[in-house]
Amino acid sequence: MDNKNKVIAKIQGAEYTLVGDISQEHMDEICETVNDMLLDVKKSNPLMNKNMALLLCALNLSEGLKNQKMLNDELNEQIGNLENIKELKEQIRIYKEYASRNNEIYQELSLENDRLKEEVETSRDSLEQYNKKIKQYKYDIEESRKTILDLQNQLFESQIELVKANKKGTYDD
């Protein structure tokens, strides 16, 4: 569905019929730009012939078009950079979420670590108390063993004296 329009281009009073997909209004704007450029060229050198003025006008338009293309390329590059910036901003947002979650996890683990440190300290205190009790029990056992040995020795000596006394009593009879 090519909508080809028949338009009239008016350049310095001459009319040219063209066919294309451009509107008459747009063609009129283009012609106005070309006519203004031709007037500027002729003002700078009134003796210049029409073909030379058209050639200079074409060169000026070509240079303008090339400059616009370079500008367009730069803008497209900047747009590409903006898209990269948007992607980077999204990545930063995601990393911030990760950092926030990691911070939460760190806080939880820090609290758990503090709790475990307290538990270890309590266990150390309990262990120290148990070790003191064990030491005391060992001392008590050693003292009891000595007491038992002393009592056994006394019993043995008493038995010896009893045997001596019984022997003496039987010899006295």
UniProtKB/TrEMBL annotation:
Q: Gene3D superfamilies attached here?
A: 6.10.250.790
Q: Name one GO biological process term.
A: cell division
Q: Does the keyword Coiled coil apply?
A: yes
Organism domain of life: Bacteria
- What InterPro entries does the database record attribute to this sequence? Bac_CellDiv_Activator, Cell_div_ZapA-like, Cell_div_ZapA-like_sf
Q: Give one Pfam family, short name only.
A: ZapA
Name the UniProt record assigns to this protein: Cell division protein ZapA
